[in-house]
Amino acid sequence: xxxxxxxxxxxxxxxxxxxxxxxxxxxxxxxxxxxxxxxxxxxxxxxxxxxxxxxxxxxxxxxxxxxxxxxxxxxxxxxxxxxxxxxxxxxxxxxxxxxxxxxxxxxxxxxxxxxxxxxxxxxxxxxxxxxxxxxxxxxxxxxxxxxxxxxxxxxxxxxxxxxxxxxxxxxxxxxxxxxxxxxxxxxxxxxxxxxxxxxxxxxxxxxxxxxxxxxxxxxxxxxxxxxxxxxxxxxxxxxxxxxxxxxxxxxxxxxxxxxxxxxxxxxxxxxxxxxxxxxxxxxxxxxxxxxxxxxxxxxxxxxxxxxxxxxxxxxxxxxxxxxxxxxxxxxxxxxxxxxxxxxxxxxxxxxxxxxxxxxxxxxxxxxxxxxxxxxxxxxxxxxxxxxxxxxxxxxxxxxxxxxxxxxxxxxxxxxxxxxxxxxxxxxxxxxxxxxxxxxxxxxxxxxxxxxxxxxxxxxxxxxxxxxxxxxxxxxxxxxxxxxxxxxxxxxxxxxxxxxxxxxxxxxxxxxxxxxxxxxxxxxxxxxxxxxxxxxxxxxxxxxxxxxxxxxxxxxxxxxxxxxxxxxxxxxxxxxxxxxxxxxxxxxxxxxxxxxxxxxxxxxxxxxxxxxxxxxxxxxxxxxxxxxxxxxxxxxxxxx
Amino acid sequence: xxxxxxxxxxxxxxxxxxxxxxxxxxxxxxxxxxxxxxxxxxxxxxxxxxxxxxxxxxxxxxxxxxxxxxxxxxxxxxxxxxxxxxxxxxxxxxxxxxxxxxxxxxxxxxxxxxxxxxxxxxxxxxxxxxxxxxxxxxxxxxxxxxxxxxxxxxxxxxxxxxxxxxxxxxxxxxxxxxxxxxxxxxxxxxxxxxxxxxxxxxxxxxxxxxxxxxxxxxxxxxxxxxxxxxxxxxxxxxxxxxxxxxxxxxxxxxxxxxxxxxxxxxxxxxxxxxxxxxxxxxxxxxxxxxxxxxxxxxxxxxxxxxxxxxxxxxxxxxxxxxxxxxxxxxxxxxxxxxxxxxxxxxxxxxxxxxxxxxxxxxxxxxxxxxxxxxxxxxxxxxxxxxxxxxxxxxxxxxxxxxxxxxxxxxxxxxxxxxxxxxxxxxxxxxxxxxxxxxxxxxxxxxxxxxxxxxxxxxxxxxxxxxxxxxxxxxxxxxxxxxxxxxxxxxxxxxxxxxxxxxxxxx
Lengths: 639, 506
Prior knowledge:
The structure holds two protein chains of two kinds. By secondary structure, chain A is mostly helical. Chain A has four domains: 1-282, no CATH class; 289-546, no CATH class; 549-598; 602-639. Helices cover 74% and strands 3% of the residues of chain A. Chain A is built from 27 helices and two strands. Chain A has helices at 2-7, 11-27, 31-57, 89-112, 119-138, 142-160, 167-198, 203-211, 219-236, 245-248, 254-263, 265-275, 277-280, 284-307, 311-331, 335-362, 380-394, 400-414, 418-443, 458-473, 484-488, 501-524, 529-537, 539-546, 551-598, 605-626, 628-635, and strands at residues 67-76, 79-87. A two-stranded antiparallel sheet of chain A has the order 1-2. By secondary structure, chain B is mostly helical. Chain B has one domain (6-502). A two-stranded antiparallel sheet of chain B has the order 1-2. In chain B, helix 6 (162-195) crosses helix 7, helix 8 runs parallel beside helix 12 and helix 12 (277-303) runs antiparallel to helix 13 (308-329). The longest helix of chain B has 34 residues, at 162-195. Chain B is globular. The chains are: A mainly alpha, B mainly alpha. At the A-B interface, strand 1, helix 6, helix 7 and helix 25 of A face helix 12, helix 14, helix 17, helix 18 and helix 20 of B. Chain A: This is NADH-quinone oxidoreductase subunit L. Chain A: The chain crosses the membrane at residues 6-26, 33-57, 92-109, 121-140, 146-164, 176-201, 213-235, 256-280, 286-307, 314-336, 342-363, 383-403, 415-436, 457-478, 498-519, 610-635. Chain A: Residues 73-123 form the NADH-Ubiquinone oxidoreductase (complex I) chain 5 N-terminal domain. Chain A: Belongs to the CPA3 antiporters (TC 2.A.63) subunit A family. Chain A: It holds the Pfam family Proton_antipo_M.
């Protein structure tokens, strides 16, 4: 069975894809059946994924080389594309994680989406979403990966805009797609360059060839290629400056936010960089770029998260920030740490998003954390599981986030990136602060009498409990003392840094400080006087942060003024110059010359005869000068 | 099936249907449409059969039929298909069949409408299976007449009147064919002088044509480039395209944007490139530049449009820019991409126009600010629209992605920075199609459209046929590319052979 699952890993994406087809064409009118099909598809995928992952993790030889098989997709002289499966510890871990979290999200959604008119449609979209992500993860070819990459983009577009009647949802969906498109333009150029330079997009083959890239091209070209490829992940994983779409993606139903932010779409960018690390690692400056982008994004997004008021927006910026950590880890050369953080983050972030969804359902979609308060009393399961998530993301041992964040910070320090390390550490403090600000404001303190919350049904709370358990123990596979994780998932050589107690203790102190500060400002101080005073005092900074550094506004202006403006110019040029002057001008010329000639068409026989006679005369005269004998013939009697 | 004239029957089936229609009383509305549907269905089924029965490993012309016609001019009634013409033949019939159903609600003089439509389909089909230049031109001229009548009678007047639109379409077609004709006659005289015997078949012309001097090849190619280029809406001879499509009835927009303008690209490859390789080599950079201009310029212009048909009109100019860019690359990968992209764009544009046609039929408007939220009231229509939109922006998994990818590979290799401008077109394309989709289908529903009925029954056929082609072609690209490749590889081999010979002479 295990062998079968490994040899047929393509079933993992195929099952949810089939669920999509079945729902769209068959079961759409029956909501419960559609949900059943979707859940069956993803759980089936999970079973296969688990078996395949088991197979991989019981065979240490897979750390040396991957299991690759595929079929021809298209070929012509100079271009061969095979699609296939590439199974190794990294992708095995990913399919396991993605299908597990997706399964829980699907089950949760059966409760959350209840009563929605688009219930069946929702389940068809999320099935396609999971299928695309699993395809992306298992791809053995960059082009195939790009197919999955764009399809998750499509699904996120459909799901963000799921509430089609809302203008905000519509705009957010469009923004997500276009922003990612701009990034994909770079990725596409990078792929084209790879194809042209190395003649293949097959990942294993590419890895071999890039290791000896000097035979093919110069370091300068390769640097350019790496930067272009990296543009894609910047968009998909919401890195600065293309992060703008991610917080707006909250317009979709909450399970979607969990699916997009935790398990699937946004980590695709990190995963791609991880998969292409053989390219980046050849170019030190590209690695620096990845690391700096990551660290900056982590810090930048965390500062925004401090001031936000909507629960899902806070979580969204926290996601951007955590993705920055993963990029930072890749940039300092550790695939292991990055994937580890992706793994733990999937659990605690899915947990928190679904907890937020539970809260939103209870409060009839009132999203402002300042209007919540004391929810722990009525919604104990949601609240306490959320607290587990909060501890995990803040980095309190023994919760999952601690181990992975510690690994990243230690790696950054070990590779002598002191500034980036400091940025990461400070972000850890900010993370603990804003997340616990949310927790204290929403779940503790006094109840808001306007709210009448009730705990969510079992199909929503059970996934929360399971995820809370995973967010607790999920990090134990990668403790510094016995790091199973890094023995399997690594790039180059096994990265095994000695436990760095300084970093460990330091990061815990920072996290506790953050939580304590939030506790003081938002729990002890019931009227939040100090918090408000702080906001007053630093009004300028507060407004800047609250408005997300006005980056959205700048883009909006660019889009409207520059893009639309030039579009108008092109169109006017087309109407008035190409069409107006050239085409219609030619038309007018023809018509006028026709009209001009019409004057000669008088209809009077005498005129025609006159013209005819003149013509003969002219010919005769001409001939008379050139060849007299011919003229004589013509003019006959006239001598 | 040896000796059974499949191609001839495929070609004559719509003609026969048209003939039958002349005997049907003009108020037999249903019957007329059914006969048209049967006629086009037979063609579609046969062309599918031919597509899959064609032996790709053997290659070359198959299903050949040759009847000597005008001996003095070397004209043969010569039908046959290879890897380049087969996708076009299939495309024509997929669209033709869908177009009949997209016109299911035509109630104004249906008999005349369907007779003309069927003749139009047959004419277009003929250009793709003719292997003789004279026959090719004959079919090409056959196409012009029905188009003109269809537009001025059944068209619609918006920014421009339908008469203006019909006139513009027709005149452009005629100007194009005028230049073409001059080129063709000159070519014929020169090749006859070289070969000694007149021969109008493509292969015969090519053998003699390649022996023409460089100067002759260059100016002959220029004439053909102008003729075929303006048919392909090559920038700056593109302005008939948005106006023409906007004025034309749905079925004509579908056929015109879907296949008719592809005759331009097909002719460039099959005739101009094949017969005059040296001329092609000389003009290739210009073709690429004009292609890129078309891509960028039309995409930007599409962004400023508020009428749905104008958006797709400009968009098709933009997509044809990719085809030109690919032809300009003069490589196997590029030409593969060019032919495949013509197929992909045909399916996509036809689906787009049919969906817009239904929207217009139901809401009586194509003006985007007057619409919104249709996804609620007409979900299937919205699904078809979005499918076409996604194909238009080159979403992987749909038919247009791989062709664009191959075009990018080929042109990036040859033209570098120039190609980057064209590739950037994918961003603008995403912007305008998503905007159109968002403002038409999403947002708060409008109450005046609450009563609208979603597409149903026969109206679903275009979505089913073209949608299937979009998805199957996208998921299994080898179905299309193996076919195209089997035609392009020998073509390019001959072209390169000819170019090398010339290289040896100099």
